[in-house]
Structure formats: structure tokens, C-alpha cells
Specification:
heteropentamer; A alpha/beta (245); B mainly alpha (217); C alpha/beta (254); A: 245 residues; three-stranded antiparallel beta sheet; C: alpha/beta; Rossmann fold; six-stranded mixed beta sheet; five-stranded antiparallel beta sheet; 9 helices; globular; binds adenosine-5'-triphosphate; binds magnesium ion
Chain lengths: 245, 217, 254, 217, 254
């Protein structure tokens, strides 16, 4: 009911088909707040466009990303749409659309770092953001994972990048879209290795039993891919079309 | 400088949230704490034991977990189960948690009042509630100001825990900008804001202490 | 006027293992001033505190102005009056403590008018003339706006007396009202009590001031070991104590 | 049940970290707090003002920011700048922060000791340090046990802040499993662990209070 | 034996606006017992506290056993001895306070041996016989393991005396050692002081107990308004007070 409307939600009279989108509003460039404190980002634009086509009002509800499952299951949000990586484990609990973006888990080091390859990571301290799919990506590469001195889980990527700068961390494994966003802000300070920890797909998630919503979402997403709307948004944020067809 | 002005907006908004959560929690937690303290020193064994357990539970578990519980798990608890939106859920958690700390402060304060004050009131015919309201509590307030000030300052900063419910308090707003712009300047500004709030509180408590200092003992 | 103001019969009081009062009986008539003397630990304070229900008795009966506060039946069971009655009965008695027990957060005047306003429901204007009259009587009218901590011990004790009198009691109980004071301050307080005696207030005064007992008391009660050993007009008792313990006690006091 | 046993490992490890941070911080923060309190009541105006400012700063800003500062910004501060690994950085932050709170508790305790105790010691020829060590502080310890207990319990739970330096305390470990397995069970277990630690502390403080209760006043 | 034990000359003491001592001079010889009497607020306590540096004087000179604690030059500037000397000089004087100031966290025995061990650096075994002897003397040997809060006021005051004596002082200062006590306890303490007098301890005793002043003191000093108005052998002063204020004062004391 109305009582549950998120504070960030628009106050307009809600149409019968309001969809609450849960997102981490501290996750540039997928979703974050601009200087006017308005929600912006690639996923935000994508979700808005989808909402328009669905004839539904999209309400964005910032959530703590660590609590995303609880938010979804307690029906406080209907959709998770914020660079959500599709994994086997998550598929058991969440219903996913087909992938809309391919993402690589890249390795970021400082510009002066002698590290060149994954093999160089042996005996090094490597950071990831806690709760991110980077953890699973690294662990999947068992050989490399074992060779590490330590895999440190940071509260957020910025802290990890700062620690990288401070020299206590040797490398950071991070979503490409995110990593590129940050390295672009400090040109010449960071370097991305050629090797990576594999690719993965971003999808939009709903509750397991919410098949009706999933069907409509999937249909709309496909439309957007086909008529170039998605590509336009991608170009706006990443300078090129990286939408996965 | 220009940048500072540009990030001020969200930080001031965050400060608003922080102050709201702080003020509302404080206003409800203090009286609740007082009631708990009164039960804890009452002669009713069962309520007393319940309050003891309550205080142990509330002081013994992290506030963050309490907040998550109230937000996510409470709806599934039979009878008292209720689905609260984020802001009320946070307030309820803060009030329940801080009431426990305040209760301990009040209890220590009440127990430090001399027995003679009760007897003095009793022989004049004051009932127990009258004695508490008119004689004991006014003296307690004076004595507990220092620990109350400690706990209140902690509350201001604890409000930042509402980030687990994704509400944008001052600290989270600052973090948001840090993440976006990859600079730690917003943290410095946030620290200054916190210092300012603490200063106001400290001065307020000092003022109260001075006002109460007209009498000794 | 038939019944005495205070009528205690066979009052026993036990604290855990110790029997502190072992059957104390005392009747005090209207206008009497009874001084209670005796060695430390003999139960004087406890007896006084039983009279106005600051302690509960273990056995025995107490009537105040003809009304039963507590009675012990033939079966030995001790029955107190209902709470509301107890409060009504005890309100007739004012008490002044050794350590004053003034309310430190209230001014002298506020200390005095607190109970009349809160307990009797009087309005401030109604009690103010009485309060000022009492303050004049104890010589502290100019201190009405001071806090107790700013007063000397003797002044504090006089405020305590005025505070008790403001409730217009029929009986005043004093527990060593001067023993926390030095000799000069003692004088102040004794003068005040003496004036009350002249107005025929019924009073029970536990005291170590033999001079005061001698001069003011109509009767002196000597307690020892939780019992009353002797209770006689002051002059007689001091002149010729009957009980050997009384004689010892009086001799030892300087 | 089986699941419980499987998640126990990381949780117990996390508890180890929590306990370590707590114990080490406590052991250093208490004496530092005492020293700060002694300076704060001393007659040296300049150190006194410095300590006042220090306490305001430490109580006035969030511990999280202090920790980030010590970890990231301290290396760039001239003279005292030093690059600390995560664990020492966290400990330093906790010690500096809690010392401020403990200092206030000690100060209130010392100031509550009767002037007569100082004069009694003075006329016997005890120097000021001797008076403090032998006469005043032993009495202070007894009196400040209740607020000290409050603050200590808070410290146990505050240790969870070390997550910002990517360390795995109990709460963080629980969160990790919660995210991995989509179940809130680890939170329940963590809460139980916290309760157990708090219980031990509460009992410990009760024991101390009883031991000190051999004398009154 | 030439110089007096205490030699105070023209001691002035000012608290903010109030001049509390206005030129007090007093010399006390070895073995003398001087009682200081006078109305409340006359500066008796302040004078005593100036002697052992609990207060600093504003003007005047004090010598203890021939050593200068403080001296005021012709220029009116007041010069105290170096800190180390002050502590050495003041250690020769024991002081007993009205409110005892025992250390509540130490047992009776610990209270007594604390200063000899900490200040004089004695070993526990060295001081123990002295401590026990002192406890026997004040009649509290059986209480040595008790905490002060478990003792009656009179017992506490006797512990305070024993504690001061354990430092083996040449002079004892007492500030109203009995005024917090009731008459029976007063007796205990006065007996102890009387015994000290018999052993020729030099003592300065502020007291309200005229009986004691009369019996024990070799000399009685009457202070009023920050000045010594009269200082004469006890018998003479009580029998025929010279100064009219002294006469008034003695008459008013019951
Ligand atoms: N609450 C209590 N619990 C246990 N014993 C008590 C309590 N109150 C008083 N007593 C004991 O009862 C006895 C009588 O005490 P009470 O205070 O009546 O004596 P008192 O005659 O007033 O003595 P004093 O002249 O010293 O005031 C004492 O032995 C005292 O220790
Ligand atoms: N620290 C102080 N600050 C200001 N005035 C003080 C201080 N100490 C004492 N006085 C004042 O100095 C005067 C003398 O005090 P003092 O205690 O020496 O009197 P006293 O003769 O010992 O009296 P009493 O018999 O009541 O103990 C009093 O008027 C008192 O108010
Ligand atoms: Mg008594
Ligand atoms: Mg004095």
C-alpha cells in the first residue's frame, strides 16, 4: 500500500502498476546521485525507459546492497536492477532476465606496479568489494586464488582503490564498468591488466514467483535492445554500445 | 571551494536526516528509559526480571542487527508483527536500544539519591509517585547530566547506522559523494558537521549543568 | 480528649536476627513533651520510626489520636490499617530528622510549601501566608529564597521544623534534632522547640541534650536494650533515677 | 543443524578478531584515558586546553572517519606521519577514540572524591602522585565501574567498524555468509555470540562491584 | 628548647573580599595543650589550616620547631620555604579533622600504616608493632581488619588519631575532633586526647567542649572576628574572662 512507499519514490499518484526498483545509490556509473542529489546512471536510464514502455511508474528505492535479498523477499522492492551479476547461486533465489550487459572482472593496479599478469598475483594482497561477484570470480579461478597472499574484502571499491594507492594492496578485482569509471577519474594513476577473471552477465532480478512481471520485463528489454534504445543509453554512459544482445 | 559548495547540498540534506533521527529517537528513548528504570527498581519481581532481560538483550546485541530485525524480520513475528517503512523502523530500533542505555543511567541516578529524601517526603505525606516526580527525579536529572551527555553524543553518531536501511544520513551522503567523485573531501566536511552538532550538544549540556548548579548536592 | 495522642502498646521490632524493640509501651497525652533518652543502639530511633510507619512493627499495637495504625490480635498476627488510612493517620504527625533531609533542589520557601500544595492540594496563595508566618517564627524569613546548601546546620534544622509545621500536624516527632549541630547552633534549634512547647504542641523528642530534656520535657523516658526502663517527670528522673542503668547512664554523660 | 556447524568456522574466527581488537583496545585505552583525565584536572593550562580539544574532537567525530583517517591520511601528515597496516591502524583508532570516553568517566570519578581525602593524605605527608595512586584512584575505580561497564560493552560492538579497513570481525563474517547463502541464520548466531560476550563482561563487572563492596562510600 | 614548637606572628588570611584572619600571633611551647575556642566563623579552622599549609597565608610568619615555613619581609611580600622543606616541616605535625577523613577503601590497620610505608619508606614489619601499639592505646586492636564504614563515629575518630600518631609527629592539631559525635562517643575521643596530654604531646585543639578545654588545656585562646582576643591559662580564662566578647560567648554556651 501507500504506506510502504519509499522516501525516494515519486509522490505522483501511483498507477496500479507501480514497480519498485531496488538499487544501490552509491554505485557509479550504474546508479548514483548527481550533484543535485538526483538519481542518475546507466541502469537508472534503462529502467526508466523500460517503465515508460511498460506503462508503469518506476519508483527507485535505494537499498543497502548487502540486504538486497531481504529487500526483495520482504516485498519492499519488486525488482533488483543495478549491475546485478547473474550467478548460479543467485539463480536459485532470484528470477533473472536474459543478460543485458556483459561485464568482465578486471584487475586494477597502480601505474607503477610491476604486476603484468595473473601469475604475478602470486603472494600478493588482492582486494575486492565485499558482497560483489568479484569474490566468486576470483574463487572460481582456484589456482590463482590459492596463490594469493590474501583476498581482502573492502566495504567499497573506493576504500580499496585508496589502499591500492597507499601500497598496502597490490591489486583490485572489480566490475569493468565500475573500474573504468574510477580509473578514468584519476588518469595516469591506475592501470588495468590485460588478463581478467572472466566475463559475467548483468541481468535484472525479480522474486522467484513473480513470473508475470518477469515476462513483461523480458519482453520490454528485448524491444529496447532491438530498436536501439538500449544502445543509445549505453553510448551515453560508456561512449560505445556494449549492450549484450 | 567551488566544489565544496557543490557538495554542500546533499550533505546538508543528510544532516537533516541525521538530526531528525537523533531528535525523534532521543525524545522517545529518554522517557522510555525512565519508565524501564522505574520498573527495574520497583518491587514487582516479574516485570523487574523482564526489564533486566530486555536491557541485557538490547545492550548485548549490535544495534545494526536490531535494526535489520525490526525492518525485515518483525513482519513475520506473530501477533506483534508489523511491517514498518524504513524511517519508522529505524526510529523504533534506536528508541528500543537507547532506552536500555538510558535506563541504566537513570537507575544509577535514582539509586544514588539518599534514602533520607524518600523518608523526608514520606513523613510529609507524599505518595510514591509524588515523591518520584517532585523530589527524586529533579535531583536525578542534575546528577545524570554527564553520562547522559556521553550517551547522547554517541547517539548522534550512531544514527549513521541507518545506512543498513539505505537511508541517506550525513555519513552515508558523504560516502556517496566519495564514491562518485573519488575524493575524501566530503568526509572532512562531514566530520566538521558532526563536530558542530557535538559542540551544540556539549554547550547545551554545560548550560543545563550550570543551571542546576544553583544548588549543591 | 479521652484517648491519648499516641498510644503504643507492646511494640516489638525485629531486624533479621536482632530484636531491637522488645515490647515498648508508651502513651503520650495532648500537649505533653516527652524526651526519650538512652544509650546508642537502644532502639530510640527505631521506636520513633515505628510510630509513623517508616518501619513496620513485628508485633504490638499503635493508635494515633484514637485511630488504630496497627493492631496485633490474640493470634499474634499483626494487622496494619489500609494504606490510605495509614497515610491519613501519619499525616497528623510531623517529623524532624537528625540529618534534616531537606530537599536540596528546592529553596527554603519551596521546601515548606511543597507538601501543602502537593499533598493537601492547596494553592500557592493559600499557603504562602502560613509559610511566611512559620519562617518568621523560626527567624529565617530573609532566607526564604536560599537553597539549603547555603544555610548553616542550625538554620537547616529550623527549616526542617518549619517544613513539618507547615502541614499543621497535631504531633511532632524529633530524632536527635541537634546532634549534627555544634553547641551554638544547638541553641537555636532548642529555642525553637521550646517555643513549640509553650504553644502546647504534643512532642516526642529523642535527644542527647540533658539540659534540654530537663528544661522542656514534661516527662523523660529512658530506653535501654529495646525497652523502656523508666518514664517519669523530668525533674524526678534526673534528681533521683530509680533504675541502676539510668543512674549509670546519667553519671557517664560528662 | 548441519548448516549451523558449517557456518560456525568463520563466525568463530570472526569472534576471535572481535575479541582481539576489543581486548587490545581496552587494555591501552583505559590507561590512556586515565592519563588524559589527570591532565584535564591538572593545573597546567595549556596541556589542559589541548586535552579538552582532543576529547571534543574524538567524541565529536565518527569513529569510522577516525579509522579511515589514521589508515589513509596519517601517512601524509608531516612528522608523526606513519603508514600503519590495517590491524594496528584499527587499534590506534579505537584506543584514541575510547580513551576520550574513558577520560571523561575517570574525570567525573576523580572529581567526585571528597576534598577531605586529599587533605587527609596531604597532612600525612603523601605527595600528589602518591595521593592519587594510593588513595584517590582505588576509590575512583570502585565508583566508575557502572559507566565503565556501559562503555566497555559498547566497545565490544563498536569493533565491528573495522570492516571499513576490510577486516573480518564477527559481524562482518556473519554478513558475508548471509550474502552468500541468502539466509539470516548467521545473524542469529552472531547475536548469540555477542550476547555471550556481553554476559561475560556483565558478570565480570558485577564481580568487581561485589569485590569492591567490602567497603562503603 | 629555646624556640617554641609553633610560632605564628601576625598571620593574615584573605579569601577574596573577606579578611578571615587579621593578624593572629600565637606561640606554643613544647608540651603545651592549647585549646582554641570562639564563635562559628571566627577563623579557628582557617588558622589551624594555615599552620600546616592546607591554606596559604596572605601575610605573616610561621615557624615550626624553629624552622621558617613562611616569612613576610619588610616589603610585605610573603615568602614560603621551598616545597621540599614545606613537606618536611609539615610532616612533623599530625592533624585530626572534624570529619575524620579516613580512607574508606583501607582497613583500620591499612589506614594507619599507609603513610609510614609510603612516605617514610618503612617496611610493613617495621611499622606493624608501632601500629598495633597505637591501636591498643586507642582501644581498637580488635577492629584492625574492619573498614572505617563499619565503625561508630567515635571509633573512626580514634582511628584518625592513631593514624596521625603513627607518623610520630611532634605536634598534633585537632579541628573540632568531637563535634560530629554524640555525647557518649565524645567521651571516648576526649579520653584519648587527655592521655596524649599526659604524655606531654604538644597540641592545638579547636573545640566547642568547654569541659574539655577546662580540664585538659594548659592555655585557652579565644578567637573572634579573625583575631585572638584573649589567651590565658584555662582556669583563669573560665573563672574571669577579661574581654567582654569572651564573657558573652561563655555565658551563651548553655
Ligand atoms: N535497618 C536495620 N537493619 C538492621 N539493624 C538495624 C537497622 N536499623 C537499626 N538497627 C539496629 O537496631 C538497633 C537500634 O537502633 P536505633 O537506631 O533505634 O538506636 P538508637 O537508640 O536510635 O541509637 P542512637 O542513639 O545511636 O541513634 C541498633 O543496634 C542498630 O544496629
Ligand atoms: N574557602 C573559603 N572561601 C571563602 N571563605 C571561606 C573559606 N573558608 C572559610 N571561609 C570563611 O572564613 C571564615 C572563617 O572560617 P573558619 O572555618 O576558619 O571558621 P571557624 O572559626 O572554624 O568556624 P566554625 O566554628 O564554624 O568551624 C568564615 O566566615 C568562612 O565563611
Ligand atoms: Mg538514633
Ligand atoms: Mg571550623
Amino acid at each position: 500500500g501507500r504506506k510502504d512507499e519509499a522516501p525516494a519514490g515519486k509522490v505522483a499518484a501511483a498507477p496500479a502498476v507501480a514497480i519498485v526498483v531496488g538499487l544501490d545509490d552509491n554505485f557509479p556509473p550504474m546508479g548514483y546521485r548527481d550533484e543535485k542529489n538526483a538519481l542518475v546512471g546507466f541502469d537508472i536510464d534503462l529502467a526508466r525507459e523500460a517503465g515508460k514502455r511498460l506503462g508503469a511508474e518506476v519508483q527507485f528505492k535505494p537499498i543497502d546492497w548487502n540486504a538486497k535479498e531481504a529487500e526483495l523477499n520482504s516485498k519492499r522492492v519488486d525488482v533488483l536492477w543495478n549491475g546485478l551479476t547473474i550467478t548460479e547461486a543467485r539463480k536459485e533465489k532470484i528470477l533473472f532476465t536474459t543478460p543485458y550487459l556483459e561485464n568482465r572482472q578486471i584487475i586494477v593496479v597502480t601505474d607503477q606496479s610491476p604486476l603484468r599478469t595473473k601469475a604475478d598475483l602470486a603472494g600478493k594482497v588482492v582486494g575486492v568489494q565485499d558482497g560483489s561477484s568479484a569474490i566468486e570470480a576470483v574463487e572460481k579461478d582456484a589456482a590463482t586464488a590459492r596463490s594469493l597472499k590474501e583476498l581482502k574484502k573492502f566495504g567499497d571499491n573506493v576504500t580499496a582503490l585508496m589502499d591500492l594507492g597507499a601500497g598496502r594492496l597490490d591489486a583490485l578485482v572489480v566490475d569493468e564498468v565500475v573500474g573504468r569509471y574510477y580509473t578514468a577519474r584519476k588518469p595516469g594513476e591506475y592501470r588495468v591488466l590485460d588478463e581478467n577473471f572472466g566475463t559475467e552477465d548483468y541481468g535484472v532480478g525479480t522474486r522467484k514467483d513473480d513470473t508475470e512481471l518477469m515476462a513483461r520485463l523480458q519482453k520490454t528489454l528485448d524491444e529496447m535492445k532491438n530498436d536501439g534504445a538500449a544502445a543509445a543509453i549505453s553510448t551515453k554512459w560508456f561512449g560505445k554500445d556494449i549492450i549484450k544482445k | 571551494m567551488d566544489y565544496l559548495i557543490r557538495i554542500m547540498g546533499p550533505l546538508i540534506e543528510g544532516t537533516g536526516v541525521t538530526l531528525q533521527v537523533f531528535l525523534i529517537s532521543f525524545v522517545f528513548a529518554v522517557p522510555l528509559g525512565l519508565v524501564l528504570a522505574l520498573v527495574r527498581i520497583s518491587r514487582f519481581a516479574v516485570p523487574r526480571a523482564l526489564v533486566n532481560g530486555y536491557i541485557w538483550l538490547m545492550r548485548g546485541t549490535p544495534l545494526m542487527l536490531q535494526m535489520l530485525f525490526i525492518y525485515f524480520a518483525l513482519p513475520f513475528v506473530p501477533v506483534i508483527g508489523v511491517r514498518l517503512p524504513d524511517f519508522p523502523a529505524a526510529i523504533v530500533a534506536f528508541v528500543l536500544n537507547y532506552a536500555a542505555y538510558f535506563a541504566e543511567i537513570f537507575r544509577a541516578g535514582i539509586q544514588s539519591i539518599d534514602r533520607g529524601q524518600y523518608e523526608g517526603a514520606r513523613v510529609l505525606g507524599l505518595s510514591y509517585p509524588q515523591t518520584m516526580r517532585r523530589i527524586v527525579l529533579p535531583q536525578v536529572f542534575k546528577r545524570i547530566l554527564p553520562p547522559l551527555s556521553n550517551e547522547t553524543i554517541t547517539l548522534v553518531k550512531d544514527t549513521s547506522l541507518i545506512y543498513v536501511l539505505a537511508m541517506n544520513d550525513l555519513l552515508r551522503a558523504a560516502r556517496g559523494i566519495v564514491q562518485r567523485d573519488f575524493t575524501t573531501m566530503p568526509f572532512v566536511v562531514a566530520a566538521a558537521f558532526y563536530l558542530a552538532m557535538t559542540l551544540v550538544l556539549t554547550l547545551g549540556f554545560q548550560h543545563l549543568e550550570k543551571r542546576y548548579a544553583v544548588y549543591d548536592g | 480528649m479521652g484517648s491519648p495522642m499516641i498510644d503504643a502498646r507492646g511494640v516489638h521490632k525485629r531486624f533479621a536476627a536482632v530484636e531491637v524493640l522488645r515490647g515498648v509501651s508508651l502513651a503520650v497525652d495532648k500537649g505533653e513533651v516527652v524526651a526519650v533518652i538512652g544509650p546508642s543502639g537502644s532502639g530510640k530511633s527505631t521506636f520513633l520510626r515505628c510510630l509513623n510507619h517508616l518501619e513496620t512493627v513485628s508485633r504490638g499495637s499503635i493508635d494515633i489520636e484514637g485511630q488504630s495504625l496497627v493492631a496485633t490480635g490474640a493470634d499474634g498476627a499483626c494487622r496494619y490499617a489500609p494504606d490510605a488510612d495509614i497515610r491519613r493517620i501519619c499525616r497528623r504527625m510531623g517529623m524532624v530528622f537528625q540529618h534534616f533531609n531537606l530537599f536540596p533542589h528546592l529553596t527554603v520557601l519551596q521546601n515548606i510549601i511543597e507538601a501543602p500544595i502537593t499533598v493537601k492540594g492547596l494553592r500557592r496563595e493559600e499557603i504562602l501566608p502560613t509559610a511566611e508566618e512559620l519562617l518568621r517564627k523560626v527567624g529565617l524569613l530573609d532566607k526564604q529564597a536560599s537553597y539549603p546548601s547555603r544555610l548553616s546546620g542550625g538554620q537547616q534544622q529550623r527549616v526542617a521544623i518549619a517544613r513539618a509545621l507547615a502541614m499543621d500536624p497535631d504531633i511532632m516527632l524529633f530524632d536527635e534534632p541537634t546532634s549534627a549541630l555544634d553547641p551554638e547552633l544547638t541553641g537555636e534549634v532548642l529555642r525553637t522547640i521550646r517555643e513549640l512547647a509553650e504553644e502546647h504542641m504534643t512532642m516526642l523528642v529523642v535527644t542527647h541534650e540533658m539540659a534540654f530534656a530537663r528544661e522542656v520535657a514534661t516527662r523523660v523516658v529512658f530506653m535501654d536494650g529495646g525497652e523502656i526502663l523508666e518514664a517519669r517527670p523530668a525533674r524526678e528522673l534526673f534528681a533521683a533515677p530509680e533504675h541502676p542503668r539510668t543512674r549509670d547512664f546519667l553519671e557517664n554523660m560528662l
